[in-house]
Amino acid sequence: MVFKLDLVTGELICTLVG
């Protein structure tokens, strides 16, 4: 669950920053 959440958060940040 933590890994999945971390992946989703990372993708969201990448999309926001990118």
Task: Please give a quick description of this structure.
The chain is an all-alpha fold. It has one helix at 2-17. The protein is built from one helix and no strands.
Descriptive report:
- This protein is mostly helical and 18 residues long.
- Helix content is 89%, strand content 0%.
- The protein contains one helix and no strands.
- The chain has one helix at 2-17.
- The model has no long low-confidence stretch (mean pLDDT 91).
Keyword list:
1 helix, rod-shaped
Question: How do the strands and helices of this protein lay out in sequence?
Answer:
Blueprint lengths: L1 H16 L1
Compressed to H and E, one letter per element, the order equals H
Mind describing the biggest β-sheet? none
* Distance between the ends: 25 Å
Task: Tell me the Rg in angstroms.
Answer: 8 Å
Q: Total strand count, please?
A: 0
Q: Which percent range fits the helix content?
A: over 70%
Q: Overall 3D geometry?
A: rod-shaped
Q: Helix tally?
A: 1
Q: Oligomeric state of the chains?
A: single chain
Q: What's the rounded overall pLDDT mean?
A: 91
- Class per helix and strand makeup: mainly alpha
* Strand content bin: under 5%
